[in-house]
Design brief:
The complex is a heterodimer. Chain A is α+β, with helices and mostly antiparallel strands. Chain A is built from 14 helices and 33 strands. Helix content of chain A is 24%, strand content 34%. In chain A, strand 17 and strand 18 form a beta hairpin. Chain B contains 15 helices and 15 strands. In chain B, helix 1 runs parallel beside helix 2, helix 2 runs parallel beside helix 3 and helix 6 runs parallel beside helix 8. The chains are: A alpha+beta, B alpha/beta. At the A-B interface, helix 13 of A face strand 6, helix 8, strand 10, helix 11 and helix 15 of B.
């Protein structure tokens, strides 16, 4: 197939604007799939993804379209993750495309994420054409939304297809636009191989399956290839393209094409997203731009609720890592929780997903400590350390200063809730860097925010204070000097390492107080009084007390029904089994998460 | 052949009206339904698999529900059929529960004639307002009238049930109920706390925040007052919730705590024969279909289970458990199995170890649920 008959593109959208549905319709209309093969949503084939309604890992599909001009075109549709945690993956998927369809909800219009994704696409020199979806909704205002796209993004939108992906309206028009508005690839097949890795997958039988877009040259079975960032070299075992939901081998792939290869690679870490694949025999001169090693943004401790299952947890993490190179973990020990792992994630959603998969797919009952960001500690002896576990914070006398990560955030909000959202950002130590009216009723707010202020519950607070109307996106900006302290918790005078966290100095008292109140509710009453204290540098700043149980009820034992009595005692006992002992105090595992929910009162 | 001791429980699931705190299955029942029920219970007794010959019945307890709600001849017929099936000890204790305001004509005479020698009267409170709140069908006057009739009919062993922790109740208020009962000089007094169980009228009120339950301090104060006052007046506490004059402890109840053999008849009735525990199905309709043939629980206890029961049942009594009995039943030392827990509870002041006996202190009995759960594996 000639390059001018290939179209490599992606669909960009805000969550719920209909990306996956449109992808399904495109696949359906291009007719490569029988009805039976159609899953509900072909691209989102992980169970978890379907439940959350978002796409986690990027994937690709190749279909054949018979255009109105009578010619056949190959469409490579590359799916992108829709969440800010996976921004780097998104950027690499975009780099594999030549154009993008921007899909906008006809009722909701442009959202913060829409903008972020469009800018990302424009940064990668993609040609973007808009599509207005959900025109079947009673509240749809396609004309207003088209105007908004022109005003805000500055791309032509008056002739944008008005469609309903759900009801299959306007799909033909979209297919023709793909042919005419997305540019054909323009690589040189005679140059040395140069391919961009935009995703990879671990298969227990074939090893790593590398997803790539070939920029120049070609690749076939038996070729020796080199990964330019890691330097590893392997022999190609199989090349092919993506049928819907399966891999279809072929003889070779050439410049402009999208496909995969396998090379008996055992470790996903060798095939990093964004890396360049070239020929080991005649390598290209320089790698494709934009590659970087992804760093974990959020860390937390993960422990098995039942300490006997530590080996199971390790196995599970190892298995998950096979398919998710961005997950990092190393063993750690906590006096309170025993043996576990300090795990690094791209963001909170990523953490959530991993935690859920561990619990669901590996049937593990977990205790998770409060997630934290990576702080930079500059010591008086001139050395610098990355702090991922609050327990490792050096003595304050050894600390010269500390820095915390700052993100730049964009929040789109209706003017009605502007005050509430500005208030929220101020509470979270935000510094406003911009405020633009998109329309008379909608504002784009720009803030610099410390990452540790948004990892817990910022998104929830944002939604609740705007009644769901605010949307939010952010990206890592820089590290800045900050006044930070470690807040410690003592239960019955015993320091609990797993409950410590780093907090902005001026917030320490407030957080400590809330923490103590929360723990007071979480910890069941014992036969003795339990003081709960919050302390900074050994100084107690807040205290609560769990009162002692003095009395339980005198129950009647009806007709010698001992089973009933025993069930009651078992319940009492069972509750205890799920707890962790801190000295003589039994602490439920939920208590370790209570730090997360400190702001649920808004 | 020496016969083994056996206790018998018969359940009568009829009530005029459900009390506000009750989560037990009970029905109003027409006389016809009651007669039907009698037939079913008689059949269950008759068809009970164990041979009556190997046992000697030491105690019988007819509970409910409200046994005094059904025509008295039903009670007499049940007693007759029990006597047909089993041999009775000469001094057998034969208790029946009754509620004021349900008494049928001639009932007390019939009860006496069929051998009932102990009556337990559900009084709950000597305050009309509290009785209304609890959803009881009787007044204080009704109770007193019943009590005097019982005495006049010649019953020499009478127990009165009282309920503490009633919404709005203070220690002082409860004291006046208790004084009123003491003035009547019953042989036995039971005091239970109100427990707000799911599925009751009280529970829905509780969820709406309409139930003014006394504070833990007030409940503790009440219980201590009860303990002190009753001991002052010559009632010995012999179990968490039970007090009696010397020699009037309820022998039937003690069988439950000491894990003696007992056989229960009627829906939801529980039995323990050796280490075999079984409980009839609770549903009235299912019970009526195959009386005594459908069971909810039915299992033989493991040695460990039996050991745990030995502890958490025996320690309810003020006499506590005996290391010698433990060794006799299980062939193992109590300290080898539960030594650590016993030591800890003794150190914390909840348990007294005297000679071969271990028993809870007053403080221990106050938090017995927590302490007893520690014996469970």
């Amino acid at each position: 197939m000639q390059q001018d008959h290939i179209r490599n593109f992606c669909i960009i959208a805000h969550i719920d604007h209909g990306k996956s549905t449109l992808a399904d319709r495109i696949i359906e209309k291009t007719g490569l799939l029988t009805e039976r093969e159609m899953q509900e949503q072909v691209l989102d084939n992980m169970e978890l993804e379907r439940e959350r309604g978002i796409t986690i890992k990027s994937q690709a599909v190749r279909t054949v379209y018979q255009a109105k001009n009578g010619e056949e075109y190959i469409f490579n549709l590359i799916d992108t993750p829709g969440h800010v945690d996976f921004n780097y993956e998104v950027s690499r998927a975009l780099a594999a495309c030549d154009g993008a369809i921007l899909i906008v909800d006809a009722a909701q219009g442009i959202e913060a994420q829409t903008l972020a994704n469009v800018y990302l696409a424009l940064d990668h020199d993609l040609d973007v054409f808009p599509v207005i979806n959900k025109i079947d909704l009673p509240s749809a205002e396609p004309e207003r939304v088209a105007q908004e796209i022109e005003d805000v993004i500055g791309i032509e939108a008056m002739d944008a297809p008005r469609i309903s992906a759900k009801n299959g309206i306007g799909i033909e028009e979209v297919l023709e636009e793909i042919v005419h508005k997305i540019p054909a690839p323009s690589g040189d097949v005679n140059k040395p191989l140069k391919a961009l890795i935009f995703d990879s997958l671990y298969d227990p039988y074939r090893g790593v399956i590398v997803f790539m877009r070939i920029m120049d040259g070609s690749i076939k079975k038996g070729d020796k290839v080199r990964f330019m960032a890691t330097g590893s070299e392997n022999e190609v075992v199989e090349v092919g393209y993506f049928g819907a939901g399966r891999f279809i081998p072929c003889d070779s792939l050439e410049a402009g094409m999208v496909g995969y290869f396998t090379a008996s690679i055992k470790d996903l870490k060798e095939t990093r997203v964004g890396d360049t694949v070239t020929s080991a025999v005649t390598p290209c001169e320089e790698a494709l731009p934009g590659y970087r090693k992804v760093n974990s943004m959020v860390y937390c401790g993960i422990y098995p609720a039942d300490s006997a299952r530590y080996p199971d947890l390790r196995d599970a993490l190892e298995k998950l890592q096979l398919n998710d190179a961005s997950l990092t973990f190393e063993p750690e020990t906590s006096a309170a929780l025993g043996f576990g792992f300090r795990c690094g994630f791209l963001g909170l959603l990523h953490l959530d997903i991993i935690q859920e998969r561990l619990e669901r797919e590996y049937d593990l009952d977990l205790v998770t400590t409060a997630p934290g960001v990576v702080y930079k500690v500059f010591k008086t002896d001139g050395t610098e350390m990355d702090l991922t576990n609050p327990a490792n914070l050096p003595d304050p006398s050894e600390i010269e200063h500390m820095e915390e990560p700052i993100v730049s955030a964009e929040i789109m909000v209706n003017t009605e809730y502007l005050g509430a959202i500005i208030g929220l950002c101020q509470e979270r130590r935000g510094i406003q860097t911009g405020m633009d009216y998109i329309e008379t009723t909608r504002v784009l707010l720009k803030y610099d925010l410390p990452l540790n202020e948004i990892i817990y519950d910022f998104f929830d607070a944002l939604k609740s204070r705007s009644r769901g109307y605010a949307s939010f996106d952010y990206e890592m900006k820089e590290y800045r000097t900050s006044e930070l302290v470690k807040l410690d918790i003592l239960i019955n005078k015993e320091y609990v390492d797993a409950l410590s966290f780093i907090v902005f100095k001026d917030s320490a008292y407030e957080r400590g107080r809330k923490m103590c109140e929360k723990l007071k509710d979480e910890i069941p009453r014992h036969l003795f009084e339990i003081p709960i204290q919050a302390a900074v540098s050994g100084k107690v700043i807040a205290r609560e007390t769990v009162r002692a149980v003095r009395k339980d009820v005198l129950a009647k034992c009806y007709g010698g029904d001992i089973s009933r009595k025993k069930k009651l005692l078992e319940k009492q006992k069972e509750g205890k089994k799920k707890m962790r002992s801190i000295g003589t105090v039994e602490v439920p595992k939920e208590a370790f998460l209570s730090v997360l929910k400190l702001d649920s009162d808004n | 052949m020496k016969k083994s001791p056996l206790s018998i429980y018969v359940h009568i699931p009829f009530c005029v009206k459900k009390c506000s705190y009750c989560d037990f299955l009970s029905l109003a029942g027409t006389e016809e339904e009651m007669e039907h029920y009698l037939t079913a219970v008689l059949r269950e007794i008759e068809e009970a698999e164990e041979s009556g010959l190997q046992y000697e019945v030491q105690t019988v307890y007819i509970g409910g529900g409200t046994p005094s709600r059904v025509p008295p001849h039903l009670i007499a017929e049940i007693m007759d059929s029990l006597r047909k099936k089993y041999t009775f000890a000469e001094n057998a204790e034969m208790s029946m529960e009754m509620n004021p305001g349900t008494m049928k004509k001639d009932a007390l005479r019939i009860y006496r004639e069929c051998g009932i020698n102990r009556l337990s009267i559900g009084c709950q409170s000597l305050n009309d307002e509290e009785l209304r709140l609890l959803g009881r069908i009787h007044t204080v006057e009704d109770f007193k009238k019943t009590y005097h009739e019982v005495r006049e009919a010649g019953f020499k062993n009478v127990s009165v049930d009282l309920m503490s922790s009633i919404p709005g109740q203070s220690a002082e208020k409860f004291r006046s109920s208790l004084e009123g009962i003491l003035a009547l000089k019953p042989e036995h007094i039971s005091v239970y706390s109100l427990i707000v169980e799911p599925g009751t009228l009280f529970y829905s009120k509780y969820e709406k925040g309409e139930l003014d339950l006394p504070s833990e301090e007030s409940v503790t104060e009440t219980d201590r007052m009860v303990r002190d006052l009753l001991s002052e007046r010559g009632y010995k506490r012999y179990e968490i919730s039970n007090y009696a004059r010397d020699g009037y402890e309820c022998r039937h109840n003690l069988v439950y705590w000491n894990r003696g053999d007992y056989r229960g008849f009627g829906p939801g009735a529980a039995s323990l024969i050796g280490d075999h525990r079984f409980t009839n199905i609770r549903s009235y309709a299912s019970y009526m279909e195959h009386p005594g043939k459908t069971r909810e629980d039915d299992f033989v206890l493991s040695v460990r289970d039996a050991m745990e029961e030995f502890m958490f049942l025996g320690l309810r009594t003020c006499e506590g458990v005996s290391a010698i009995d433990f060794y006799r039943y299980f062939g193992q030392d109590i300290t080898d199995i539960f030594g650590k827990i016993l030591e800890k509870q003794e150190r914390d002041g909840y348990l007294i170890h005297k000679g071969e006996r271990y028993s809870y202190t007053d403080e221990g009995l106050e938090v017995s649920n927590i302490l007893m759960s520690e014996y469970l594996e």
